[in-house]
Amino acid sequence: MDRPSHLSVVIDLDPSRWDTLNLSLFLSHLLGFFNAHVAAKHENTLAVFGAFPAKSVMLYSSSDPIAEIPPNDANSYPPFKLVDSTVVNRIARELELIADDDLDAPVALVGALTKALCYINRLTVEANAATTSSTDQSLEPVALPDPRILIVSVSPDITSSYIPVMNSIFSAQKLKVTIDACQISGPENVFLQQATHLTGGSFIYAERQDALLQYLIMALLSPPSVRRTIAVPTQDKIDFRATCFCHKNIVDIGFVCSVCLSIFCQPVPVCSTCRTKFPIKTLQKLNSSRPPLPQSNSSRAPTPSSSSARPSTTPRPPATPPTGSDQRHLPRSVVNGHAP
Amino acid sequence: MPATVRQRPQPGQKNPDSSTHALLPFLQVQSATALSRLYQSPSSCLSIFRLLAPVERQIVMNLLWLESAMTPSTLAAWVTTEGQKLYDSSLDTLSHLHILHNYPTKLALNTTFKTSLRHAITGGGTTGSFGVPAEKDEKRLPLDVEGLDSYALERWETILHFMVSSGTGQNPQRPSPGVLYLLQRSGLMGNQHGSLQITSAGFQFLLHESHAQLWNLLLQYLHMAEERQMDLVEVLSFLFMLSTMELGREYSTENLSKTQKAMLEDLRDYGLLWQRRPTSRRFSPTRLATTLTSSSPDLPSSTGASSTGFIVLETNYRVYAYTDNPLQTAILNLFVSLKYRFPNLVVGSITRDSVKRALNNGISADQIISYLVTHAHPQMRKNNPLLPVTVQDQIRLWELEKNRLKSQEGYLYTSFASQADYEYVLNYAKQMELVLWENNAKRSFFGSIEGHANIRSFIERRSAGGSG
Question: Key word Zinc-finger present in the record (chain A) (predicted)?
Fold first, then answer.
């Protein structure tokens, strides 16, 4: 079935990262991609979110009333021109607005992702309200067809945002949103890999920036219905590692509270999230069996001998994605290294 | 090329699997040179791209930015096993449209198509194919969107209303001679006893969705354009240009070719565009035009009822239609016997006679049912199944009643000299599968008309051989 689809794009616009990259070339490729999405169908909708240091902004949405009509010329399709000029102007304005002391702040990727999810949720609710207005709920609610989020990232993981990222992933699963990610530079982003894997999306690492448009179109343009015919690349290995709740480190071996599933990088006597106390014997046993700690953490580590614990130790194989709708839940297993 | 309306795939009742647009078969039979000329315009490429199926669009996109040709195996590696069939048929369609060049040896887009679609997406080139906007005229403001909508609706409903009420003794407003000629030429209306009468194809046409109706008429227009020696490429590219224009904006006629200027008058009659005066040098496309390439156009509606559905059908065959639109009432009148009429409500019932009348007009039971489903009131949508099963079945049974007798022309072969003679000829006819009826006791059988020459010469040869 040929149905319209919605695409929200989250762009990582960290000025410190873009210093070394060619932003204008990147934007020209990205605008080509936007236009390709709008071109595919008259009813396709598009929203663009920018993640700036300590700030996230909605740059464009096709449901916005048209503020200023761009001067028309006979050689371009008006909607394309509108998308292009709006996005470019807004990015330029926002980049100028960034205060100097904000420049080093971490980029608000999660903020932008959350805004994108909220936007899709709003569209879904509106679409449902429009179709079911005069009837009761017995009618099957019409979800927004094929909503997708594409994250274009240039930054490495921000370990402190692990929990919000995971929560966003669970919301996306609930909303049946597919998250795709395209990373352009830097080390591979573990959280984005997990996000795409858990929502059935595609993750690509664009090695050549001059071919970015081709990467985007081949792998990330097609809506899920087309992907059943022309497949898109998925990762062969996914880094399932989680971060600990105590120091926000990405851990290979972690310790999970058996009650609330919080993750710690070392055995703790009391769970910091749910205040559960663990028996001292288990805690001692765990401490004796575990490899020596990295030095950086030892100064802040609670003294192991003073407490008791009953956490699980053995790292289980990378788990099936958590399906529970309870957003407190975190991956049940703590994992070492890469998934097979 | 299909010769009559009925042979054409009817977009109104297409099944969800085949999403082929009605225009694509027409384009496929055009010559490569004509298509190549058409592909010179970016707006045409963009519109045709939108008419393609999703998988076809993705294939075009994958190839669009490549400079060199791809080997078919490279892209085939991306195709899933269950999607193989769809993928192959998509490639075939693209190749028939001459969008794919050199298929199946290589995968590459037609160079003209590639350049134009690139220009469409990046905005460049100097073709001016998206329409030259007119300078703002301070004294005479352009018609606003609501004005355009009501204009388009008025034009379109005039055509439909004229069709539906022909022969009923009413005298609705007549559309322009050009429209009348098109309706007659397309077989939707026929000339009987000196006045135009709706044909069975016309009745079927009325029950389609408005988007399908519009394309149906435009296809007829294209066929007619061929006969009128109009340049088909210019006609098509003007239609596509209209479909990429912006609603509520005025465009200048200056850059249009002679053919396209001549088309302005026709399209004005169909309600696709608006001009202040026939001689005006500017025009505004209406919503009918700008949604040509979208699949579910938000066509304007005067009452607002037609978009949400207005028909309630009960198990006792009663029909309540919440509408005051004369066109909708007239269409309902095709297969419902109407009883009462209130300011916002029409009540009637589906009877054997009313359905038989519709069937005699050439409307099929499926069309009646699909019309009722499409326009069902939101209150009805709570029901599962949507329409009462008894009514659906009964409408189908009434249709079957009509088909109790089947006539077939042929010849009766009788008074054979002997039983052997009879059996010999009968066996021959049976082998050729020509026998429609046989009676051994009477030594006679009935053969179809196509086989008469064969059977006759067989008998002649046999009697000649017997006597000699």
Answer: yes
